[in-house]
Design a protein that fits this description.
Blueprint lengths: L5 E8 L4 H14 L6 E5 L2 E8 L2 E8 L4 E7 L2 H8 L4 E4 L14 H10 L16 E4 L8 E8 L4 E8 L2 E8 L3 E3 L2
Antiparallel strand pairs: 1-5, 1-6, 2-5, 3-4, 7-8, 7-11, 8-9, 9-10
Amino acid sequence: METFEKNWYVLHTYSGYENRVKINIESRAQSMGMDDYIFRVVVPEEKEIEVKNGKEKEIVHKTFPGYVLIEMVMTDESWYIVRNTPGVTGFVGSHGAGSKPAPLLQEEINSILRSLGMSMRSVELKVSVGELVKIIEGAFSGLEGEVTEVDEEKEKLKVNIDMFGRETSTELDFEQVDKID
């Protein structure tokens, strides 16, 4: 029985092939019609300023050399396509013998994506001033509020929530709320 849930997995790759694997998976997903199963492929990197001979130079380091993160729905077909991509040596958390890997926990991927300055959600939040949202993460989780300000560029919004009978304004990240239809 397959569950059609989108999760993050870790791929092990030949060291130095991380970006090539990312490009290969993205093009294979598109050419094989797997866009609904294979979503984001991320090579975790961080930029650093290095001073050599008195000159500043920006260099990019792989945060996890030899590993690539992939957001996908694990089906027999998507698993096969990713596993057989050139440069991929396997999934982390797979015990071999044809067993499917365990996905990353939500807290793990949230922490990694946040450290890379990326959003946890792959769909953009489309809300405007006056609309209601439900807070799904953070100190005010479970509360609903009215949007008073939206900053698309910083992916932040201001929401008025009812706290002990008083209206209180709070600033939230896009990924901390869901739109109420």
